[in-house]
Write a structure and sequence with these properties.
The chain is an alpha+beta fold. The protein has helices at about 10-15, 45-55, 105-120, and strands spanning about 25-30, 30-35, 60-65, 70-75, 80-85, 90, 130-135, 140-145, 155-160, 165-170, 180-185, 190, 200, 215-225. The strands form 3 sheets. An 8-stranded antiparallel sheet has the order 1-2-12-9-14-7-4-3, with helices on one face. A hairpin with a 2-residue loop joins strand 1 (about 25-30) and strand 2 (about 30-35). The structure holds succinic acid and fe (ii) ion. Fe (ii) ion (FE2) binds near residues 144, 146, 200 and 221.
Length: about 230
Amino acid sequence: MRYEPMNPQTFDLFADAEPEQQPKCVQIGEQSCVLRGFALPWLDRVLPALEIVLAAAAFRQMVTPGGFTMSVALSSCGTLGWTTDRSGYRYTRHDPQTGKPWPAMPEVFLQLAQAAAQEAGFMDFAPDSCLINRYVPGSKMSLHQDKDEHDFAAPIVSISLGLPAMFLFGGFERSDKSQRIPLLHGDIVVWGGVDRLRYHGVLPIKDGTHPQLGEQRINFTFRTAG
Ligand code: SIN
Ligand code: FE2
């Protein structure tokens, strides 16, 4: 008798009707991956919550310790907000512009960040900080490590909205070669564990108009800082 290999397609016809499983987190490192479009179903709730945060803590351009004005404008929500001025980088409980505590992290932000972390294999993510970066065309973020946090056990969850960006995901030295990862509206990058201190950055944003967000890219970076 001839051996007839089972045709997987025929086999599938008789399988239980399982929902289509998307290949979820696309690996870009040992403990880092990209979740394509993961934020999209959340945006009906995320964008109104963002408006409320920005009404209390508007975008502003900050100065680095070296005296350069960042091309990216920043805001924050959560217990701790990342800030920079001539005296250094740090997390603060108060918005230096208003003197008030940073706006609370909206529940939907927290849920989305936790769902993304979990999908990437990081359970129990408890971010206390969400940095909100606003890029206009030409804005960029030079290669850097996120290392102002108290400890590095928790991952970074980074959500992209609006105009596309070319994300640079490097190694552990600034001079290491970077991967170039195109990020679109709704994509989420998660890095942690052995990859937690990898250099990363964003190339200058190209001119364009996003149908929902206009001439800007918004990035949320969730961290456990305190
Ligand atoms: C950051 O590293 O703070 C921002 C990364 C990004 O905008 O994608
Ligand atoms: Fe960063």
